[in-house]
Amino acid sequence: MIFAPIDRRELLARAPLATAAACLPALAGAAPRAALPGWFDDLEQRTFRFFWDLANRDNGLVPDRWPTPSFASIAAVGFALTAYPVGVARGWIRREAARDLTLATLRFFAAAPQGDAPAGMSGHKGFFYHFLDMKTGQRFRDTELSSVDTTLLFLGILFAGAWYDRADPAEAEIRRLAQQITDRADWPWFTNARGSVSMGWHPGQGFIERPWEGYNEGMMVYIVGLGSRGKPLADGAWDAWTKTYPGFWRGRGTTRHLAFAPLFGHQYSQMWIDFRGVRDATMRQAGFDYFENSRRATYANRAYCIANPMRWDGYGRDIWGLTACDGPGNFRLPFKERTAEFFGYSARGPLGQPDERDDGTLAPTAALGSLAFAPEIVVPAANAMKAWPGLYGKYGFLDSFNPSFRYTDVKLEAGSVDATSGWVDGDYLGIDQGAILGAIANMRDEGVWRAMRRSPTIRRGLTRAGFAGGWLG
Description:
Largest sheet: 3 strands, antiparallel
Number of domains: 1
Protein name: Tat pathway signal protein
Strand content: 5-15%
Oligomer: single chain
Pfam families: Glycoamylase
Radius of gyration: 21 Å
CATH class: Mainly Alpha
Helix content: 25-40%
InterPro entries: Glycoamylase-like_cons_dom, TAT_signal, UCP028431
Number of strands: 18
Shape: globular
CATH topology: Glycosyltransferase
CATH architecture: Alpha/alpha barrel
Structural class: mainly alpha
Organism: Sphingomonas taxi
Domain Glycoamylase-like: 211-456
């Protein structure tokens, strides 16, 4: 039997986002501190082990995913550099071991070949290719030179430069290389005539047409670019970024926020940068800060899953979380008297928000990456997902699951299907593991934020963007 696709306007009429988000409590400022269940110690250590076990000791590169054989992700390296001090603080590894692997990583990136040749290079103009060969460290196939993934790498490098503060020669070299690598990027070269930073560049083809505009994870690109002491972004770059905000506001009253459907866009910048109490011109006018914005976005994501306008199985108060993640594959299949469309790896988020997509696939990192924003709803979600069949394993949570996908007669792109509980991914993804680990660290003792508040690059970037107040003074 063939079913007609359900009308999207009908779905949104069933559950308007402003109404669905009405369960958001009226709370401003820092999220309440909530005691974490004892099993979070196990989750934190397993997640940390993804980076510690899988890093190439010769060059510090970390695979994009595991156990599927994989190239290295420079973004995952940024998360790894942040993970190692967490391991030291928790007593899982010695500081000297973390220092040595960090130094090997920074030495690799400092010396990695740069140039505009299509092969044999790791980067160009101080930026790096999104994916690198795990062994050679050179560009993987035709991947792009990525401004945002370079930024994620830089944030990990800047964290290392701030955290390793001892006088011994190895830690001094980490600090020197951190500044050298991050200040080498030619940010004006990556900027278009409107003052916006391009998403990427390919040798022989030029820049990707789409720039970082609107509201999403691109905010960290501008903060790091403005903070550089080498070739920084020009004055006015932050204004070029924020002037594209108007179409991204959703909700009213205590639910009003800058929206971006996948939750990672609200999490990545704030894993490293403490936006509590510091405001730019936009947030001064709005009357709250970007931390509060991400808290509201987290509640809106959960509220959408509770409303569940697409009628997916499994969604509810404690099973929620839409972000970028793996999926079962690209299929159009019958589901509840309609034709449902499913996807492989894709960004996902509530319908009605920028970059919307909902195919029934949920990701533990979506909720857990928001732990520092809203622990009161994230901890129950983590408890519920830990009990989900086959989702919790060697390195903590596998990337994603889809309770509605119970089709056993199709060729999956990834993972496996159980006829009762649905599809579960077979891989752990570095960037999603990193968001979980960083959120737990900031929830426990502000471990990432405390170090990054000492970073001259971050302070300079925020100040040049017009932020003031709070810890900036």
